[in-house]
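Just scan my protein:

. . .
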Amino acid sequence: MLQSLFGARTFLDADVEAWQIETWALLLAHFGREIPFCDTPLITPTPDFFPPTDAEGHERALHVFDCTRRAMNIESWPCRLEAQPPRRGGERVSEFVTLGDASSANGTFRTDPDGTVVITYAPELLGAPVELIATFAHELSHYLLASMPEAAMDETHELMTDLMVAYSGFGIFGANACFSFQQHGDAFGQGWSSRQNGYLSPRSWAFALAVFVALRESDDGMERWLAPEIANLWRQATKYLGRHPHLLVPLRDFVS
């Protein structure tokens, strides 16, 4: 009752919120030395960052992949992109319900014994450009974090990788793709499928976007690109940070 009257003490669980602020500080300290954070653009689904192409199939994926690398300033880093085998279809468990396939990840990152970095993607994502870009940004963030060996050993590494996506300016894609829910139907029945993309929750993504905007002191019209449910959480997170400016004090020294 008191919480409903006065509001939650923290936007996220206290431990999660503290982890995000601490991780933002780590990323700013490490990567801000080479590229000032204030110079990081907000990446949007526009021709400025993703010029149109007539390519199809894997060539289309390569085009989007190269655009993503260019926006992350790692276009020259050696890397090979591979398509995963097609996923199997959903499993029908009743007349009206079909389970989606969760047998494979949207993307993977690995370093081969010869040192070659290989990123894979699910070819089905070619029909879901936001998820495709979010997947590439996440896997390429693994590549960026390779310069922080201590990060690879941390149990929160995948969460940190998602936060690196936000740090790199790709938060719109990561947040919008963090959870997809689809209803489908045909002559034989109908059903629903859902798939978790990435590791941060929608609320955590909203907080990360609010931090990104607050540190840059400009939202660049971010809200117009956000899914409604994410936009609503982002507005809440932005107001929360406005009421608690002390949370960003440890970060502002890295961007001033």
Q: What stands out?
A: The chain has one domain: 12-255. Residues 14-31 form the longest helix (18 residues). Residues 1-6, 90-103, 181-196 have pLDDT under 50 and may be disordered.
